[in-house]
Amino acid sequence: MVFQGRLSSSTLIAADFDWMASLNMRSNSDPYGYQAGLASRFGMPESQLSLILKSVGAPADAYMVLRLSELSGRTHEEVLRYYHENKHKGWGVMAKDLGIKPGSSEFKALKVGHDMRDFDDRRDDRDRGDQDHGKDRDHGKKGH
């Protein structure tokens, strides 16, 4: 039941942040890939990310700490400290408290999902779109 314990912190999120459950499942199935994805996305050494991942309740919480750091202009240490003191409030309230205005494009983007391409549930659809584009070019050549 360790898996449940890792998800429990993210159960504090509002329904608007339900994408986090999917990110947690995917990251738990490939923790090294997830850490590498975070390192790539946020430009941090994996050793530093490892410490953050160990200090949060669930893998998606690490993403949110880093994303809120980026959006708020605060260090990830400050946001991590704030997370530990206020995680019971939920991500929407924490984002607001850190200066992300509800209704802003940044806040809406947080509610919709993460921006890690390697862990994007919609990635397969985009990839198929790229492949379809290639097929269209092939079909165009056959028509000539």
Written description of the protein model:
With 144 residues, this protein is mainly alpha-helical. The protein has 9 helices and no strands. The chain has helices spanning 2-8, 19-29, 31-42, 46-55, 59-72, 76-86, 91-97, 105-112, 123-142. Helix 3 (31-42) crosses helix 4 and helix 5 (59-72) crosses helix 6.
Share in β-strands:
under 5%
Number of strands: 0
- Specify the helix fraction band: 55-70%
pLDDT averaged over residues: 77
Oligomerization category of the chains in this entry: single chain
Number of helices: 9
Order of helices and strands: HHHHHHHHH
Sheet with the most strands? none
Alpha-beta classification: mainly alpha
Low-pLDDT parts are 1-14, 121-144
Rg: 18 Å
Instruction: State the end-to-end distance.
Output: 61 Å
Shape: globular
Write out key terms for the chains shown:
globular, 144 residues, mainly alpha, disordered C terminus
What does this entry show, briefly?
With 144 residues, this protein is an all-alpha fold. Helix content is 69%, strand content 0%. It contains nine helices and no strands.
